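Q: I'm teaching a short session on how sequence maps to structure, and I want students to see two examples side by side rather than one. Could you give me a first protein with its sequence written out and its structure tokens following it? Keep the formatting plain so it prints cleanly on a handout.
A: Of course. Example one:
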Amino acid sequence: MSSGGRAGRRTAAARLLLAAAAAATIGCLCGLAEAQLTGVLDDCLCDIESIDEFNNFKIFPKIQKLQERDYFRYYKVNLKRPCPFWADDGHCSIRDCHVEPCPEYSKIANHTKELEDCEQANKLGAINSTLSNQTKEAFIDWARYDDSQDHFCELDDERSPDAQYVDLLLNPERYTGYKGPSAWRVWNSIYEENCFKPRSVYRPLNPLAPSKGESFYTWLEGLCLEKRVFYKLISGLHASINLHLCAKYLLEETWGRPRWGHNVKEFTRRFDPTETKSEGPRRLKNLYFLYLVELRALSKVASYFERSIVDLYTGNTQEDTETKSLLLDIFRDTKSFPMHFDEKSMFSGDKKGAKSLKEELRLHFKNISRIMDCVGCDKCRLWGKLQTQGLGTALKILFSEREIRNLPENSPSKGFQLTRQEIVALLNAFGRLSTSIRELQNFKVLLQQTS
């Protein structure tokens, strides 16, 4: 064999090694792409690739259009409810600081950088409450219509004098600068006190907890399915929210004109396996799991909306008809998905134990929804409350199958009813998850381009 042939083979082998090394580097940089975020999800029989294709090409474009419809763009929320778990520990005395966005600054107010961060957090986190007089008049008619319906339950929060309609299109979920001890206290309270977790087990990467104790994931794998599912839902919601903030990050603000866009560095910090001690891909798998659960709820509740008596009322007959047609089209897609989460696998033990466990889960989730009133940033609180209510509505649907199946075609029923707010929250919360999965694909491309 000639030396030229051997040299050619060595060169080819070197190229292959370099290509393999480059691929490995990209996989590491992406932190989740082909390497660790693939295959079948735990606790269900569905693979990530099927969800990506179904969401990005079928559901995402339609859910985006639905969220622009008047029925779904206005959400009534009370942002003035006091935190029921701890007292306010400081305020920023800056315009638009309606709640407690940055309590840590009361102790270090002499530091210019912290004050600038506080001012930015207030400005970015303030709610745009602009509504036309015509829209305000329409809300009176909406309320009159809702009051005439046979509601499943009455939500005090909606009827509070402090509750207000918010235009979700004018208040997109994005980076607000809300961070530090105040934000950590909220998530720490959710994870440490409301996920059935003993104090001897520490959640990874929690700066407020010591690094010793039993392995978190060893403990999680030993839980019963229902409690494991509960944790994954909360973790998936957390991952989704973080993805939104990375995708709509304040990249620069020149002459009062902010430029929002994808922050690859921030995304890597939150989700890359090397940056997160391998927890990042787990978080994103939990996002997919949450997507499946809410997708299943939409497919189960389709028959509720298919009835002629259900009207997505805004007073504009043509728009209402088009909105319902688009919603039913989305429901048809959700029912066509071949690998749904099987909620029947939950609470399948003895009836008494299953009933007790279901009530325990309900109370834990209710507590988490109350913690959202402790979020110290108006815009973060708005989207936290909406997405929590959306998930709560999805769980309500999954555990009301018999009642939904027995609904009469042409008359209301006390067996199962959804309020306007529950409907708006359900579809917008799912829309946020759909956006997260779509943005995940965008980040994969950006990471490969920068590697």
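Q: Perfect. Now a second example for contrast.
A: Example two:
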Amino acid sequence: MDGEDISNPKMEDMCANGIGGVEDAPSSSTSTTERKNRPIISGEQLDIEAYAGLYSGRTKITRLIFIADHCDNTAMQMEALRMAYDEIKRGENTQLFREVVQKIDGRLGPDYSMDAAWCATVDRKAEQRKDKLESELNAYRTNLIKESIRMGYNDFGDFYYAHGALGDAFKSYVRTRDYCTTSKHIIQMCLSAILVSIEMGQFTHVTSYVSKAEQTSEALDPPTTAKLRCAAGLAHLEAKKYKLAARKFLEVGPELGNSYSGVIAPQDVATYGGLCALASFDRTELKNKVIDNINFRNFLELVPEVRELINDFYSSHYASCLEYLGNLKSNLMLDIHIHDHVEILYDQIRSKALIQYTHPFLSVDLRMMADAFKTSVAGLENELESLIADNQIQIVKIRSANKVNYLISKSEPSQSVKTVREGSRVNPLDPRSEGSHFE
């Protein structure tokens, strides 16, 4: 094979960014010239105020605290803690308030210090409210009025949730199940249990109550269906079941709007769904279920960077795609749900890109490929070796011709061959040679 002519037509058609005659490219893709001149998003830091504005309730506060805990920019930390402090003061969670004050540690001045009087007032009112709820619930139990008992437990759930006692809130919401008389009541119970379970990080409960809600005899309205799919998507994401997560997020309808801001924003649906799909879908699924998905396209319009990197990946514009991913990474690491999955998803997306890049060609110039993937030839060879060892890329060898490294595609399915680097003393064409890479 070393003596064969390496200047085949497929090789000549290839260019450094993986561009060249890709069939079925998205109709929205721009020309090559326009794409080269298109500005890539900058690595600007997260706009915390705009980000926090997407959410409401407890998740808004916990997301701000998460940013403060995981950001290495002091100004961003202080901004997040300031906003969390202000948001908590609008509610009744004195425990969370004390935690945030401790994190601020006097760095925002006297206006953001411990407010003992406010805590005392809120706690006193909470005790009074709790006594009243207990008295009412006891009366309802005595009268055996099922609907009143259900509402009493639900009120207790709301009370505990507002004050940060999530475990007690969950128990109270679940207790309403025995007193539900309609499918609507069951769905309300399930949504409340799901909300608290997400806050507690108990995603097995999330999956269970999504299933219970979907099994009710009454047809679910579109907004509720959208919420349940979001919750299921988060549960699958947490379990690292990225393909299942992608499917759930892709099924979310436009009826979601901002109705689930206590859990997730429409922008999250686009980001979580888009990245999970890139990491787990094959090329056909990416086209049919993502790019051609009209409903999901509406979500992607809210996050143009994700929309563009998906189109770039499908169109084999890998350098641009990877640059988008690189610019998004720092902000994704500050997301409370996806931060633990960023490295895994990115590795899977990159591996898929490497596989997809090599697939159409008989020979690939590794220097050009390394340039497309923003790495060195040596680094690229290591990545390819790993994929070859996993049998994800089928090749005969990597060889050098006129000091140019080439990856030669495998032509005989029965043959299993490892890589041969430049300078090897082994004759790669002779299986009998000592140290041969043929198996």
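Q: What should students look for in example two?
A: Point them to this: The two ends are 17 Å apart (CA to CA). Also worth mentioning: Confidence is low (pLDDT under 50) at residues 1-43, 411-439.
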